[in-house]
Amino acid sequence: MSQSATTTIYRSCPTCEASCGLKMEVDQLGKQVISIKGDERDHRSGGYVCAKSQAFHHIHEDPERLRRPVRKTAEGWREISWEEALEEVGNRLYAIRQQYGKDSIAFYYGNPNGHNFHTQIYTEMFISLMDSERFFSAGSVDQQPKNLACEILYGHAWLMPVPDLDRTGYLVCMGGNPLVSQGSILGAPDVEKRFRELRGRGGKIVVMDPRRTETARLADEHVFIRPGTDTFFLLAWVHELFARGLVDLGRLAGLVDGVERVRELAQPYSPEAVAKITGVGAATIRRLVEEFSAADRAALYGRIGLCTQEFGTLASWLVEVVNILTGRLDVPGGSMFARPATGQNEAAPHVPLQHGRFFSRARSFPEYMGMLPASLMAEELECAGEDAVHAMITIAGNPVLSVPNGKGVRRAMEKLDFVVALDFYINETTSLADIILPSCSQLEHSNYDFLFSAFGQSNFARYSPRVFEPEPDSKQQYELLLEVAARINGMEADALNEMMLEGMLQRVCASAEDPAAFAARIKAETAPYRDGERLLDILLRIGPYGDGFGANPEGLTLDKIKQHPHGLDLGPLQAMLPGALRTGNQRISLVHPLLEADFPRLEQALRRELPELVMVGRRHIRDMNSWLHNIVNYARGKNRCTLLMNPADLARHGLADGEEAEISTALGTQILPVTASDEMMPGVVSFPHGFGHVYPGTGQTTAQQRLPGRSANDLIGDTLDQPSGTSVVNGVPVRVSRVA
Q1: CB of 726 closer than 8 Å to CB of 308
Q2: What CA dihedral angle connects 28, 29, 30 and 34, to 10 degrees?
Q3: What DSSP line would sit under 143-174, residue for residue?
C-alpha cells in the first residue's frame, strides 16, 4: 500500500492578473495535486476562483511538458544533458555575436514571464547583457499605448492608475471584458461580485464595446461603438467637458499643465462630428458626459480594445485626460494608484522618455521601451545585409500564433542559423528551435505577486511557496536566463548572479550615510535567502511598508510576509500624488509632442470612407492566449474558434449560422465556421485569438486534435499605432464570403 503525505498549501493563482488565493491539497510523496479550491481566508478573493485556477496543476502534470533539454536531430527530438545543451547554446550564440555583432541575435519575450517573480527580477539583467536592438515582446500586442500614455503623464511606464471599483458609483468600461479577463490592469478577483455590489449601492456601469460581452450583459447600459474609433468618442467627451463648463481638476488643480492645449485639440471633435464614425449618437455622448460628471464618485477604464487599435496611444491617453479633467484621478472611487510593498510605485529620479533611441532596419520605425514592434518581427528577421539577424531566442512565447503575420515569422525563423527556445512545450514556434531549454513548472518554484500588486484593487503582499521540490536535474527560468547571458558574455552564472546582488546594493545604499557599512549589513541580514528571494527580501525591506533594515522595526520583511499564508492586507488605495510622480518637474503635463504629432493622421481618418466589415478579437474564460490549449479539461466543449457575426450581416453575405466562411484581408484568407450572434454590432465580426494549432512537428497533441482552429493573426498585417508601435489587431477591415 502506497504511503501519502497530504499537505495543505496556500498560494496565489499564477495564471492571470487577479492572483486569487488558492487552497491546495497535495500529496507530497506522490507529488500529486489532490484538489485546488478558493482560499476563503484570502482578503482579496474571499474563496473565489475561476476555471483558470486549475491550469498550472494540469500543465505540471501534462506528459507532453518537457522536463529535460532537447536537441533537434534528423531523427527527431533527442534529450540531452544540461551541460551539453548550455555549452552548445553559449558557444553558438557567442560565435554568432562575435562574427556578426550584437544585433545579429534577436529575442522574443512572452507574456507568461509576467507571472513569475524570479524571471521578472532577472529580466533587466538579461536584456542589458544581450544588448540587442532586435528585441520583441508580447507587450507591443497588448498594453504599450497605456505604458506610453502613463510615462508621458506620470513619468513612468508602469505607474498605471486603476478604477477603484469598491468605492466608485459610476464606471465606464471601454475595450475591456473584466468578467472574463478577471481585470486586465485592474487586479480584481471576482469582478462579477464587485460589479453587483457597485450596482447594489445605487451605482451605474456603462460598457462601451462593439460586442455585447459577458461584462456588458451585467452592466446597466451597453453602448455599441465601432472598433478603432474610441479616440474620436473620447475627444468628443473632452469637447463637451469644456463646452459645458464641466472641467474641474479638483485636488490636482495646481499640479496640471496643458489644459488649454487639450481644449484646442478637442475643439473640432464635437459629438455631431464623431457620431457617424463611432456609431454613437450625439445625444448619447452628451448624456454619458453629463451622468459621469454629475456622479459623486466615477471612473473611466479603458483596456486592450483601446490599446490595440490604430490610435491606441491617443485613446489610452484620453482615458487618463478625462479622469484628470473631471477630478477623478487619485481620489477614492475614481482612478487610483496602488502602492505595492516592493516599492515600484514610489518616488524615484526622473528618467527621460525611452523612445526613438534606435530604429528598425527594414523601415526605420522607432523603438519604445527598448523594444521594436512585434508586428515588424518577420521583416526584421528577413532583413539582409551586414546587420542581418542570424539567431533568435524565444523566452516563454509563441509568436507564430501570438503576433501578426505569424506565418511570416515562421518562414523567417526557418532561415536563421540558430534558434534556442526557453520553454517547456514544443509549440508552433519552439518546434523551429535547434535546442529547447525547459524550466521547471510553477508548482516547483516560489512566487511573489510583484507586477500585479501594482494594479491591485487594494494594497497587498502575497508570497506563494513552492508546492513540490523540483527534480534534481531541473532549472528555474531565471537560472536559464543567468546561464545563457553568462555564457554568451564569457562569464560564470554564479559571478553574474553576484553582480545582480551588488548592483541592487549599490542602488539601495547610494544615499546612506555609510554606503559600505549599510551594504554589509544588508548582505548579512539577507544571507539566509538566495537568488530571487534574497533580492525580494531587500525590495520589501526598503519598500514603503518595510523595516528599513532597522529603521522601522515593525515593518515588513520577507520572513514576516511568509507568516501570512493568506496574504497580507496593506489597506485600501490611497492618494499618491504628487509624491509618486516621476516627471522632471513633478507635475502632470497633459500634452506631449509625440501625441500632437499623431493628430494630423487622426484628422485624415475622420474623413475616410468607413469599411463594410471590421474584425475584433475576443476572450474566453478557458483561454489564455495559446497557453492552455493542450489541457484536456480546457479543450472540452463546442468549438470556440468561430467567427461571430450579426444576423443581418450573415444574411447580407448569403451565409447561414454554422456554415463555413472565408474571411480575408490583404495578408491572406482563413476558413472557419460562422456563428450568428446579435451580441455583435452590425458591421463587426469577432475572431478569437490564440488558435491555429495546425503546424506539423509540434508536441501538443490535445491542442492539435481538439482545438486546432485558425490563427486570427495570419490575417493581420503590420499596421501600427504610430507613437507606441503597438499592433493594430482591432478594427481591421475584412471581407467575408461563402466558401466557394
Answers
A1: yes
A2: -30
A3: THHHHHHHHHHHS-TT---EE-TTT-SEEEEE
pLDDT for 4 equals: 63
* Alpha carbon separation from 190 to 38, 164, 178, 278 (Å, rounded): 11, 14, 9, 31
Cell numbers linked to 62: 501534462
Comparing CA positions, the residue from 132, 137, 134 lying closest to residue 113 is 137
Answering whether pTM is above 0.90, one says: yes
How far apart (Å, rounded) are the C-alpha atoms in residues 124 and 72? 30
- β-strand pairing of 76-79 with 418-422: unpaired
Angle at 88 between CA 85 and CA 90, to 5 degrees: 105
- The residue with cell 485558425 is 710
For 356, residues 6+ apart whose C-beta sits below 8 A from its C-beta are 366, 367, 368
CA distances from 396 to 16, 140, 697 (A): 15, 16, 18
Q: Which residues contact 18 (CB under 8 A, 6 or more apart)?
A: 45, 50, 182, 183, 187, 188, 189, 191, 452
Q: Phi, psi at residue 366, to the nearest 5°?
A: -75, 145
Q: Please determine, for residue 1, whether its predicted confidence score (pLDDT) is greater than 60.
A: no
Cα–Cα distance, 412 to 432 (Å, whole number): 10
Distance CA 41, CA 58 (A): 24
Q: Under the phi-then-psi rule, with left for phi > 0, alpha for psi from -120 to 50, and beta for the rest, what region is 190?
A: left
**What is the DSSP secondary-structure string of 576-608?**
-TTTT--STTSSEE---HHHHTTHHHHHHHHTS
| 94, 102 contact by CB (below 8 A) | no
The answer to whether the beta carbons of residues 308 and 142 sit under 8 Å apart is yes
**Helix 230-243 and helix 312-325: axis angle, to 10°?**
30
Which helix (H) or strand (E) segment holds residue 735: the answer is strand 735-738
Alpha carbon distance 454, 344 (integer Å) = 8
Segment 372-396 mean pLDDT: 95
- Three-state SS at 190: coil
The CB density around residue 372, as the number of other CB atoms within 10 Å, is: 25
**CA geometry: angle at 355 spanning 354 and 361, to 5°?**
125
> Which triple of cell numbers denotes residue 12?
496565489
Mean pLDDT score of the chain: 95
> How many Å from the N-terminal Cα to the C-terminal Cα in the chain?
62
Compute the average pLDDT of residues 273-296: 98
Residues ≥6 apart with Cβ < 8 Å to 548: 541, 542, 555
Alpha helices (H) along 415-525? 477-488, 493-509, 515-525
Do the Cβ atoms of 85 and 110 come closer than 8 Å?
no
Beta-bridge partner residues of 461? 568
Beta bridge pairs of residue 27: 6, 32
Residue 477 pLDDT grade (very low, low, confident, very high; cuts 50, 70, 90): very high
Contact at 8 Å (CB) between 582 and 154? yes
Closest CA to 377 of 344, 352, 400, 358: 400
Grid cell of 463 as nine digits:
508570497
Rg of the chain in Å (alpha carbons)? 25
DSSP E strands, 340-397: 355-359, 366-368, 391-395
576 in Cβ contact with 336 (< 8 Å): yes
Is residue 104 within 8 Å of 380, Cβ to Cβ?
Answer: no
Q: Are strands 391-395 and 204-208 parallel, antiparallel or unpaired?
A: unpaired
CA-CA distance, 366 to 378, in Å (whole number)? 16
145-175 per-position pLDDT tens digit: 999 999 999 999 999 999 999 999 999 999 9
- 339 and 574 in contact (C-beta within 8 Å)? yes
